[in-house]
Amino acid sequence: MIVDIQQSHPNDSAAAVVAHVRQLIDSGSLGPGARLPPERDLAREVGVSRPTVRAGLRTLAALGVVRSRRGSGTYIPDGPPTLGADALSFLAALHKFTVDDVYEARRILEVGAAGLAAERATPDQLATLADEVAGLFASLSERQVFLVHDINFHRSIAAASGNPIVASLVEMVSLLYYERRRATAERAVDRDLRDAADSHRQIYQAVRARDVDAARRAMDEHLLRSRSYQAKETQASTIKSSRLVRRTADRSAEREGGLVHRSAPPEGGLVHRSAPREGGLVHRSAPREGGLVHRSAPREGGQKRTAK
Q1: CA-based angle 134:177:244, to the nearest 5?
Q2: Which CATH number does the domain housing residue 60 bear?
Q3: What domain range is 48 assigned to?
Q4: Which of 7, 1, 19 has the alpha carbon at shortest distance from 60?
Q5: I need a surface site. Which of 82, 114, 198, 204 has the fewest CB within 10 A?
């Protein structure tokens, strides 16, 4: 959805805050890395309350225009502009973005970005790429750290392309990739991690050598292999989940079976114990009655014998 700030309704106070910040950017008063005026100053300048200012800033944050730093204030980001991570994740869920969709988008964007980086990367950007490659090899045993260096390398390639639109799009796609890959990264095998680190080194070497074709080819091959790595990780996670479900079901069945097994004997025991008790009562009452008759009979007989 595209928000037309210029056509916002005049009574929409939050939109007035957004429009005011846009004017500050257009006039050059605010640029990348700049800190916005404090909330009270913005409220006074726009003529709205501070809660309304906060609502406007939340809108700008969702658009990726500003970023809040706790205890410091609100800033225009230094790097390439991006759609807020939460908003992008929401869109991905709504439109059912698949892993294949993400990798296809990455190949479209990053293969070209690698070629541009080979033409345009500055010495500082090359140094950043070298640092990320070193970080990859240093974190082969730490899956999540490795993933962070992986993401940073690709973002640095996009930044080195010199095209802010490409850098922004790669930044957004990287957020999606990271969100999904971190769930499976722990299943990565050592061989695949080392292979991935080698692939990043080849991309870096091609960019440093200013070999456009080699950089594009190395990036394309790396992304194709990366897709196969993630497929194996996902399969391993699925198998583990299935085994966990089966073990849980087996334990549940065992517990239920144990309860049935334990409850059956008491019931049988109750029936078994009650039957003897009832029989015992009948048996005991019969002798008592018989005994009474038997005892009364002799007494009567005894009385008759005595009378005689």
Answers
A1: 100
A2: 1.10.10.10
A3: 5-75
A4: 19
A5: 198
DSSP assigned state of 95: T
Give per-residue pLDDT as tens, 152-202: 999 999 999 999 999 989 988 988 888 888 888 888 889 999 999 999 999
Among all chains, which residue has been given the structure tokens 């605010």?
30
Structure tokens that stand for 282 in this block: 């009948």
- Which residue type sits at 98? T
Nearest to 138 by CA among 130, 146, 128: 146
Please give the angle made by the CA atoms of 251, 245 and 252, to the nearest 5 degrees.
20
Helix (H) or strand (E) holding 277: helix 212-307
119 plus 220 within the same structural domain = yes
Do 191 and 108 fall within a single domain?
Answer: yes
With residue 100 as reference, give the H or E element that holds it: helix 99-120
Question: pLDDT tens across 60-85, in order?
Answer: 987 778 888 888 899 998 876 666 66
What size, in residues, is the chain? 308
Domain presence at residue 139? yes
Kindly compute the dihedral angle of the four CA atoms of residues 50, 54, 60, 65, in this order, to the nearest 10 degrees. Answer: 80
Q: How many CA atoms lie within 13 A of 297 on its CB side?
A: 6
- Domain membership of residue 294 (yes or no) is no
Determine contact, residues 188/136, Cβ cutoff 8 Å: no
How far apart, in whole angstroms, are the C-alpha atoms of residue 21 and residue 17? Answer: 6
Q: Which of 188, 208, 241 is the last residue of a domain?
A: 241
- E strand or H helix at 75: strand 73-75
289 assigned to some structural domain: no
| Tokens coding 243 | 């085994």
Pair 155, 234 in one domain: yes
Instruction: Kindly report the CATH number assigned to the domain that includes residue 130.
Output: 1.20.120.530
Residues 180 and 203 placed together within one structural domain of the fold = yes
